[in-house]
Amino acid sequence: EVQLVESGGGLVQPGGSLRVSCEVSRFVFINSWMAWVRQAPGKGLEWVGNINPDGHVTGYMDSVKGRFTISRDNGKNSLYLQMNSLRAEDTAVYYCVKDWGWHTFDFWGQGTRVTVSS
Amino acid sequence: QSVLTQPPSASGSPGQSVAISCTGTSSDVGGYNYVSWYQQHPGKAPKLLISEVYKRPSGVPDRFSGSKYANTATLTVSGLQAEDEADYYCISYAGGNDVALGGGTKLTVL
Fold first, then answer.
1. Does the structure show a pLDDT above 90 at A27?
2. What are the CA-CA distances from residue A94 to residues A7, A40, B7 (Å)?
3. Do A18 and A116 touch, CB atoms closer than 8 A?
4. Neighboring chain A residues of B51 at a CB cutoff of 8 Å
5. Please, which pLDDT band fits residue A1 given cuts at 50, 70 and 90?
6. Which residues pair with B88 in a beta bridge?
7. Rounded to an integer, what distance in angstroms lies between the CA atom of residue A113 and that of residue A84?
8. Model confidence over A40-94: pLDDT tens digits?
9. What is the DSSP code (8-state) at residue B56?
10. Which of A93, A115, B40, B61 is 20 to 30 A from A12, alpha carbon to alpha carbon?
């Protein structure tokens, strides 16, 4: 069974930084596009950004450009989301997702909660 | 990131059929056959139900079906069951690295 396990969420003050991680297993990570999708409390899904298999190509939603960075370590089957200059509106559950292609997300992690508050 | 229009709510009785629409533009839903649908139960992660407009991944009951006409995609749930009560989201490829997401529909089984 494919597994994606996020970690690293928590409470952070506005303006602070946080890095969340996602460890994957039971699929060929090195061949897969990956993405982060978030969901604010009581709200819908938002695509945060994605990364190609070799890690050299990334894309982001406008509101996080310049603040968030997605990276990966294929040797560790891991995906990362570095979040800087955090704002209250970044408060959400962050899901690590496998992108099958054309923004079709076939496997999801359980999510990690990030709360930005003073 | 574009926004697709979904009705905020839908409902039906057990055994009935319910259709949930997802309306975009010719730049997303209407332009590509890469519309996917997701089911999310409270407190759980979303789960892929339909890919490429109408394709069901292994394990998804055939009560769930997808279709598309012009700029509107539709998810139909037939033979409603209590466990179908959940939030449903549509997502569409929108060219390049662009994506469009629906705001979600809360399905209630009466």
1. no
2. 10, 9, 24
3. no
4. 100, 104, 106
5. confident
6. B39, B105
7. 16
8. 999 999 999 999 999 999 999 999 999 999 999 999 999 999 999 999 999 999 9
9. P
10. B40
Query: What's the confidence (pLDDT) of residue B33?
Result: 97
Does the beta carbon of B77 lie under 8 angstroms from any beta carbon of chain A?
no
Looking at beta carbons, which residues of chain B come within 8 Å of A37?
A: 46
What is the model's pLDDT at position A28?
A: 84
By the 8 A CB rule, do B57 and B64 touch? no
- pLDDT, averaged per 10 consecutive residues of chain B (110 residues), comes to 91 97 97 98 97 96 97 98 98 96 97
DSSP state of A57: -
As beta bridge partners, residue A25 has A3
Q: What is the dihedral of CA B62, B64, B70, B72, to 10 degrees?
A: 180
Q: Which long-range contacts (CB under 8 A, 24 or more apart) does B62-65 make?
A: B64/B37
Span A23-43, average pLDDT: 93
Contacts of A102 in chain B (CB under 8 A): 32, 34, 93
With an 8 Å Cβ cutoff, is B83 touching chain A?
no
Answer for the pair B81, B17: CB distance below 8 angstroms, yes or no: no
Centre a 10 Å sphere on the Cβ of residue A10 and count the other Cβ atoms it contains: 11
Phi and psi at residue A29, to the nearest 5°:
-60, -40
CA dist A40 and B11 (Å) reads 24
Rounded Cα–Cα distance for residues B67 and B37 (Å): 11
